[in-house]
Design brief:
mainly alpha
């Protein structure tokens, strides 16, 4: 399985070279582009940004669901190893999206909590307490 993932990495690097882009420049550029597009999405469509990011993640994962690709993996690895490879590929594709959602959504929650705590009126401190309790409940549900 490790050799297959290395092969995919080499093939992606070759594609970058074919496009005229050095992989040492291409990978950091791809990360910066991803972060910039996610920031732009959260700036322009703050309410719908998580949904947009999840839809884009699912679209990228659908690219990995080609029948020919599944048959190829089955012929090379067998049924159990094919499942492991598919899970690893899907996790690799989904990880940047999950990290982005976790960081941005968590940052928005903490920023809201901080803003409500700064103005310490009776009503605002109740809001801050409520947001803090919500954050703790989400954290406990996650783990």
């Amino acid at each position: 399985m490790g050799d297959y993932l290395k092969l995919q990495f080499v093939m992606l690097s070759r594609r970058m070279r074919h496009w005229g882009l050095n992989p040492f420049v291409g990978y950091p550029l791809a990360v910066l582009l991803f972060v910039g597009v996610c920031k732009l999405t959260f700036d322009r469509a703050r309410e719908y940004a998580p949904y947009i990011i999840v839809i884009v993640c699912v679209m990228f994962q659908m690219m990995l669901c080609d029948k020919d690709r599944a048959d190829f993996l089955l012929s090379i690895f067998g049924d159990r190893a094919k499942t492991k490879v598919r899970i690893a590929e899907n996790l690799i594709v989904a990880l940047p999206f999950v990290i982005t959602l976790g960081i941005t959504y968590g940052t928005f929650r903490l920023f809201r909590m901080y803003n409500n705590t700064v103005s310490c009126n009776g009503v605002d401190s109740f809001k801050a307490k409520s947001v803090f309790c919500d954050t703790i409940a989400i954290f406990q549900a996650t783990f």
